[in-house]
């Protein structure tokens, strides 16, 4: 979903530190396949770059197990939720193949990957100070996770070409807001230059 015009939102530049960064791959699931498929190659490229830079990777999977975990999403989504055990809840195959250990998967039931999950504990345990965010949806789970990471004291890097949502206007609105006060904007090329160049 990125275009050269999204670079106009950059307010500052910095490269992630591979010694203290982690990649968060947000909700690349069948339910979101119409948004996830167009950015799939860029997400896979980002995963590859991070693996080559020895950056740990965590994958989130949004799903609901019971009515007690619906929260406001039950009302907001008119009951159209992603239920555990359904095809919609599964990570798309190309991404699922990238999960190398069970503890890389973080189950969540709301927009934030931090809320009622073990993500922060996992990041703190391995000394992570920075997060790189890719996945879907730009303006919901990706943005909420990025903002909460910033509030929790993590330096945030947000991908412009490996995130997507339902339309370009919402995508760009998130990039504008995050660049203004929460995150450094990155793309596959800048990550490759910043993390893999000698």
End-to-end separation in angstroms reads 29 Å
Query: Care to count the β-strands?
Result: 6
Strand order of the largest sheet: 3-2-1-4-5-6
Described by strand count, sense and barrel closure, the largest sheet is:
6 strands, parallel
Low-confidence stretches: none
Supply the helix-strand structural class.
alpha/beta
Number of helices: 7
Characteristic key phrases:
6-stranded parallel beta sheet, 198 residues, alpha/beta
What does this structure look like?
The chain is an alpha/beta fold and 198 residues long. It has a 6-stranded parallel beta sheet. It is globular. It starts with 20 loop residues before the first strand and ends with a helix. The mean pLDDT is 93.
Show the helix and strand layout.
Layout: E1 21-26, H1 33-52, E2 57-62, H2 71-76, H3 93-96, E3 105-108, H4 119-125, E4 130-136, H5 138-151, E5 155-164, H6 168-181, E6 184-186, H7 188-196
Parallel strand pairs: 1-2, 1-4, 2-3, 4-5, 5-6
Helix pairs in contact: 1-7, 5-6
Short description, anyone?
The protein has about 200 residues and is of the alpha/beta class. It has helices at about 35-50, 70-75, 95, 120-125, 140-150, 170-180, 190-195; strands spanning about 20-25, 55-60, 105-110, 130-135, 155-165, 185.
């Amino acid at each position: 979903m990125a275009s050269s015009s999204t670079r106009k939102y950059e307010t500052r530049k910095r490269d992630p530190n591979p010694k203290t960064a982690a990649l968060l791959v947000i909700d690349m699931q069948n339910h979101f396949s119409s948004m996830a498929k167009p950015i799939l190659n860029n997400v896979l490229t980002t995963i590859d770059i991070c693996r080559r830079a020895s950056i740990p990777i965590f994958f989130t999977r949004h799903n609901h197990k019971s009515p007690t975990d619906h929260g406001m999403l039950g009302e907001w989504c008119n009951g159209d939720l992603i239920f555990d055990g359904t095809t919609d809840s599964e990570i798309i195959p190309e991404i699922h193949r990238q999960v190398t250990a069970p503890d890389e998967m973080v189950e969540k039931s709301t927009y934030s990957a931090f809320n009622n999950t073990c993500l922060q504990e996992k990041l703190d345990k391995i000394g992570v100070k920075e997060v790189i965010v890719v996945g879907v949806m730009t303006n919901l789970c990706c943005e909420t996770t990025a903002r909460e990471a910033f509030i929790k004291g993590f330096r945030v890097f947000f991908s412009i070409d490996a995130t997507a949502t339902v339309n370009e206007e919402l995508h760009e609105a998130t990039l504008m807001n995050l660049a203004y006060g929460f995150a450094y904007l990155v793309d596959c090329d800048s990550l490759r230059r910043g993390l893999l160049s000698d």
